[in-house]
Amino acid sequence: MRKTYYILLSLLLLGFSDIYACTCQGESTVKGAIKNSDFVIVGEIISRAFVDIPDSALIKQNFKDTLYHKQYPYVHRISKYSIKIEKIYKGKTTSDTLDIYTGNGGGDCGYRFKIGDRYIVYGNKETYFGMTNNDCEYPKGKNCIWTNICMRTTNYYQSEIDEIEKIIK
């Protein structure tokens, strides 16, 4: 019995490496979220894809042999959602759709959208991951924004829209 306990404990401890958690600072208000966002839009999510970003900092740190790192690449997987825009409250775009990048949820603060649902999205032009890993080349461009669970992005609620419209006037 004691042997089984130690084996299970060892497996449990060896099975975990670094653990990361998402922490949002303070409570977000509509006014604060609008002020701190480059974009505030309403729309319907029409697709999702995963994007693998090579983590060049880890590659540099761990692999001197480029052939080896191509076989075992360090990547940061993120989600790319496309949203059909219904209304823009803040920001400018050249298209009726935008690509929204976010983490996959859990410790990376990613927002999990559901295809076919309507959302109010507060977003920025630059990634929020850049603060921790500047070596990665994250997507950016005219029709691309970033959001996360700390930015007040939410399902569509008329009460939220009413508050946005009072502030934007």
From TrEMBL:
Protein name: Tissue inhibitor of metalloproteinase
Compartments reported by the entry: Secreted
Coiled coil residues, start to end: none
InterPro entries xrefs: TIMP, TIMP-like_OB-fold
Cellular component GO terms, alphabetical: extracellular matrix; extracellular space
Species whose genome carries this gene: Maribacter luteus
BP term (GO), one: negative regulation of membrane protein ectodomain proteolysis
Single Gene Ontology MF annotation: protease binding
Alphabetized UniProt keyword annotations: Secreted, Signal
Signal sequence segment: 1-21
Organism phylogeny: Bacteria, Pseudomonadati, Bacteroidota, Flavobacteriia, Flavobacteriales
